[in-house]
Amino acid sequence: MPKKPVRxxxxxxPEPRETLFGDITPQDELSLGRPGETFEDIRxxxxxxxxCPLHEGRHTIVHTEGKxxxxxxxxxxxxxxxxxxxxxxxxxxxxxxxxxxxEAIGLKREDVLIGNVNRCRxxxxxxPTTEEAHTCKxxxxxxxxxxxxxxxxxxxxxxxxxxxxxxEGITRLRGQFQDYRGIKVMPTFHPAYLLRDPSKKREVWDDxxxxxxxxNSTKA
Length: 220
Ligand code: URA
Fold this sequence. Notes:
There is one protein chain. The protein has a single domain (17-28, 36-217), classed as Uracil-DNA Glycosylase, subunit E. The radius of gyration is 23 Å and the shape is globular. By secondary structure, it is α/β, with parallel strands linked by helices. The chain has 9 helices and 6 strands. The chain has a 6-stranded mixed β-sheet. The structure holds uracil. Residues 76-80, 83, 89-90, 94-95, 116, 192 line the site of uracil.
């Protein structure tokens, strides 16, 4: 009787080369962008964006505005009607109040960077959904990674939650420096909220004095 061939135990498949199971870039790392990229590269990537439903109702994409070398950046939620019409962030009533806040700490609008988590106006100025914010936010994070300002002021709950990935509310965290990748982040109330409740201006002024003092203490 012919001998049954002895079956060699199957050898293990070769290990994947270089890294086990390959590299899945974390969402956060995607937000770092490409080395050497510019604000113009990011705008080109955004293009005539249709990545989320907000494109359906928008008139203009509202990009971040200001000096990429600014030491101070403001981040809001999303454009309103005036911004959607003009293509510039914070140009309506809330924007006029923001200009005064900037001037109150001895700066001019042209000295700072101003952007939003979402670049298209949500219908009826509703809060952007988590999905919409997550779709648009990486472009802002890439800009922050280029500019690396000394301080980012997050205006209101939505901007704060999106930048800091926190479940805390603005009332609890405002006025206390937080951290985003080594950058100081000051949460404060949104100027639109101050228009509805001017008694809250005092707290924003207190928060902005901390920002001013930090910037002055770290001046080159
Ligand atoms: N509110 C925002 O959050 N952003 C703007 O650009 C205008 C109003």
